[in-house]
Every structure is written in C-alpha cells, then in structure tokens.
Design goal:
Layout: H1 7-17, H2 24-32, H3 36-51, E1 54-58, E2 60-63, H4 92-104, E3 109-112, H5 122-135, E4 140-143, H6 146-155, H7 160-170, H8 187-191, H9 198-210, E5 215-221, H10 227-244, E6 247-254, H11 270-283, E7 289-290, H12 294-297, H13 299-305, E8 312-315, H14 339-348, E9 352-355, H15 383-389
Parallel strand pairs: 1-8, 1-9, 2-3, 3-4, 5-6, 6-7
C-alpha cells in the first residue's frame, strides 16, 4: 500500500522520512491535501518518534491583573476601555489570594497576562511579581507576552533589556506565547493594528531568550487569514528558533468568534484544526512540544489532536473567579478541568499522562497514578520504516 492516495503528500512523507526540512510550498501542500488521516498519521509518526506515547499536562492557574487595553484587536473579546462598566484592575492583595488558592490546589504555575493599561506604573507589575514570588516561591511565574514587553519599553521609556532585567529580578520565570496572532501583512494590521509588528515580536523573543528565559509561541487561526499567512507564520517561528533557541512549545489557537468584532465569522472547523495541528508538527521541526489547547479546541477535539502531532494538552487552568477573564468552546464557557478528568482525557485517547512543570520537568506525585516514566517506550522504528510498513 502507498502511504496516501495524495501523490504530493507521499512525496512530502518521503522527505520527512529522510529528515529533510519542509519548505513553504510543502506547508501549503500539506494544508491542501484531502487525505486527512494520512496527514495525521505522518504527524503522529514524528510525534511518536520524539515523545512516544507521553502526553504532558500541568496543574496551573490563570491570572489577568487588568482587562483595560488600548489595543482594540478585532478578534479579542477580553479587552475593555476604562469607561466600560466591567473594566477592572485588581490590586496585589487580590492576586495573592488567587495564588493562595492555586497553591492549595497543587498548582505549580501561575499564568499572568493582561491588557495594555496606560494608567498603571511599571512598579505595579514588578511589585506584583515580587509579592507573588515572596509569598509563594513554589509557583513558577509565567508572565507577560511580547506585546506587553513592547508596551512596557515604549510607554515607560526603558530599553528592552532594562524591562527584561527588572522583571526577572522581580520574579519572572518564563513567558507565554501570546500576541503573535498572525505575522504576515496586511492581515496582521487588519486584525490588530495597535500591536507591535511581527519583526518586533520576534526581536523581543530573541532578547528574552538571550536573557535565559524560555518562552512559548502561538498562532491564531480561523479568522480572516489565508493558508499562506499560516505557513509564513510557522516558517518565521522556525527561523527565530534557529537564531535564539528559546521556544519550548507551540500552541495553535483556534479563533473563537463570539463577543468579538469578527463575530460574524464561524471560526475554524474540526478538520481545519486537525490539519493545523499536523502541519505545525511537521513544519516546526525544531520545536519539541506542540500543544492541543483544550480550552479553545474543546475537550473531545483535543483528544483527537493528540493523534495529529500534539504531545501536550495544557493544564487544569482553573479560573481565578473574577480575577480571570477567559473564554472556552466548552459548555457554559467552562475554563477549568480537574486533574483526574485531565488524566482520564489523555488516557482515554490511548496516551500516557505525564505531569510536568512549566519548563517540562516531570513531576512525580506518589499515589496519584500519573505515569512518570523515563520515556523509554519511544518508538524504535524510523519514520521511513513506518511509512514503508503502511
């Protein structure tokens, strides 16, 4: 049997088997295939060669200090102007309460992002980090996107290096991958005109990596962007990883239209999301981890995405009540999952659940039934042998 009824996909599969880097044209061709199972199988072979059946999750909590923002991005349902009745900025004591709840629930990570609020001094952010780190040193503080870093540097008139150093001194441990959206113009300017451009986002990533911090990377898909926009985005991330090497995980973010300026759009289909997951795994050959973010995919599709190249499903997330403004495709906008349910979701998909910390160190909690093996079950066959066996 041939690998696929799609001749071009067969040719690309041979290049993957040979360890060749895929081109922009290859990425476009992967999206164009109508053989979804074969595309998924190819991505799964790459995933299993690297990670076996291991699928990572963590116990984490989100914190959004403020939702006031001047960057009125068309895809965003989070931001508010200062005069809107549900605009907020929380004080540090409130944030400490969320951290206390997170620690009590066994969280190892606090994920902190917010709006670009021009009414706040820079000391608000450094005091927030230092207070959290002082009270709860066991929490890894993953905080602030490159868009926030850009805002800090320009609005507070500091160099990039000064911003980065002050935040690290205050307790910053790593950075999330938000704000990337779509790099290519004119699409980027059409959906987020007031954010820093792609070159600036990538430049700041390089500087944060040079300072010794790990970060993630994202891509928002399923809105007005083209397939070429998506592939261009992946190629640019791959190139930046070659330069600075600090990306540890890529998260494709499925656009969620309700309550945004693009609410008339439908968002990505399940097929589109699975293709994007698989193409990401195949194009980003220098990224270790690809995440199926269950909040935006939905729990069931996230399970399937684990067979399309993803080896991480994010975490418990557990909202911080009114201190978190999140959205989810799940019923009742659910943005939380128990650890037991999360493990069950992974195992039901026939993978091994491994709890991790933010930088992918395995966490062993005796008695909770989480598999924390060494990964010795990694498939021994090469991709080429697997393809030939099909």
């Amino acid at each position: 049997m041939t690998f696929s009824h799609d001749k071009q996909l067969n040719e690309i599969a041979e290049r993957v088997a040979a360890g060749e880097r895929l081109s922009f044209a290859d990425g476009v061709a992967l999206y164009a295939t109508n053989d979804l199972p074969a595309l998924g199988k190819l991505a799964d072979l790459v995933r299993r060669r690297r990670h076996g059946r291991t699928t990572y999750f963590n116990v984490n909590r989100h914190l959004n200090p403020t939702n006031i923002c001047y960057a009125d991005c068309k895809f965003c349902g989070f931001y508010r102007t200062p005069r809107q009745p549900d605009a907020y900025t929380h004080n540090i004591d409130d944030s400490l309460k969320v951290a206390a709840q997170a620690v009590a629930e066994g969280a190892t990570e606090l994920h902190i992002t917010g709006g670009l609020n021009t009414k706040l001094p820079f000391s608000y952010f450094t005091d927030l980090l230092s207070s959290l780190k002082r009270q709860y040193p066991q929490l890894h503080l993953k905080a602030f996107t490159m868009v926030e870093f850009d805002h800090f540097a320009h609005f507070y008139k500091m160099s990039d290096e000064e911003v980065i150093q002050k935040l690290i001194e205050a307790g910053l441990d790593s950075c999330p991958g938000g704000g990337a959206e779509i790099f290519r113009e004119p699409t980027r300017s059409m959906i987020c005109a007031h954010k820093c451009n792609a070159d600036r986002w990538l430049e700041l990533q390089g500087k944060v990596h040079a300072a010794g911090l790990k970060t993630n990377a994202t891509m928002l898909y399923g809105h007005i962007e083209s397939i070429e926009d998506r592939v261009d985005h992946l190629v640019k991330l791959r190139e930046q990883q070659e330069k600075s090497g600090g990306f540890q995980c890529f998260i494709p973010l499925a656009f969620y239209p309700p309550d945004t300026q693009l609410a008339h759009l439908h968002g990505p289909s399940g097929v589109d999301s699975l293709k994007t997951m698989a193409v990401s795994r195949l194009m980003l050959d220098n990224f270790d981890h690809i995440k199926a973010y269950w909040v935006m995919l939905g729990k069931r599709l996230a399970q399937v995405a684990l067979h399309y190249g993803a080896n991480d499903i994010d975490g418990t997330i557990t909202e911080g009540g009114e201190l978190t403004t999140s959205y989810s495709v799940e019923a009742n906008n659910e943005v939380k999952m128990s650890k037991t349910e999360l493990i069950g979701l992974i195992e039901d998909a026939s993978f091994e659940a491994v709890e991790r910390d933010t930088v992918y160190n395995r966490i062993d909690r005796p008695g909770d039934g989480v598999i924390t093996g060494s990964g010795s079950d990694l498939v021994s066959d090469t991709i080429k042998e697997s393809i030939r066996a099909l």
